[in-house]
Amino acid sequence: MPVDENENSQVLDWQDGIENALAHLTCVLVAQRTRTTPERVSWQQYDVLEMLRLRGPMTPSSLSNALSVSRPTMSKALRVLKDQDLVEQAALGTDRREQTTSLTPAGREFLDRAAACRRDNAKIAESVLTPAEQTVFAELCGKVAEAINASTQPAPISS
User: Fold this and answer.
1) How many CA atoms lie within 13 A of 73 on its CB side?
2) Bridge partners of 90?
3) Is 30 helix (H, G, I), strand (E, B) or coil?
4) Calpha distance 62→74 (Å, rounded)
5) How large is the greatest C-alpha to C-alpha distance in the chain, in angstroms?
6) Model's pTM, two decimal places?
7) How confident is the model at residue 134 (pLDDT cuts 50, 70, 90)?
8) Are 139 and 58 a contacting pair, CB within 8 Å?
9) pLDDT tens for residues 43-93?
10) What does the buried/exposed string (b/e) look like for 130-151 if buried means 16 or more CB atoms within 10 Å of the residue's CB?
11) Quick one: CA torsion of 45, 47, 50, 52, rounded to 10 degrees?
């Protein structure tokens, strides 16, 4: 394994197996997203924002069920997102205890920047891959994602 001259740590060769290739790609994509969306949103909070974008306003219990997390975990995520003005909550009907959560304009703008970053990454991938390689890459990504998703046992939901 090569040693990084600027650091006294070993550098993994991304071409040395699937695990390193996945780790390297993940690190690059996360770093790119962090540069584009510096709000320090966790993956779980990002998932909440995407779920609201896809499904529209939802109750916290619907969000926790959709994302397979506990109600306390969802409450914490929503509290952080509200503090960052990315989501807002309003009473649902006459029962003021029941809240609906929706994206704020700042939340939509955050997701727009994240989407632009994904599109930019896709353009870069398209520029270095032939059309045939692009097809194979997309198929392989889908195949691996489906296999990982199928092998993962859902986390128990506790309140």
Assistant:
1) 19
2) 100
3) helix
4) 10
5) 64
6) 0.68
7) very high
8) no
9) 899 999 999 999 999 999 999 999 999 999 999 999 999 999 999 999 877
10) eeeeeeeeeeeeeeeeeeeeee
11) -70
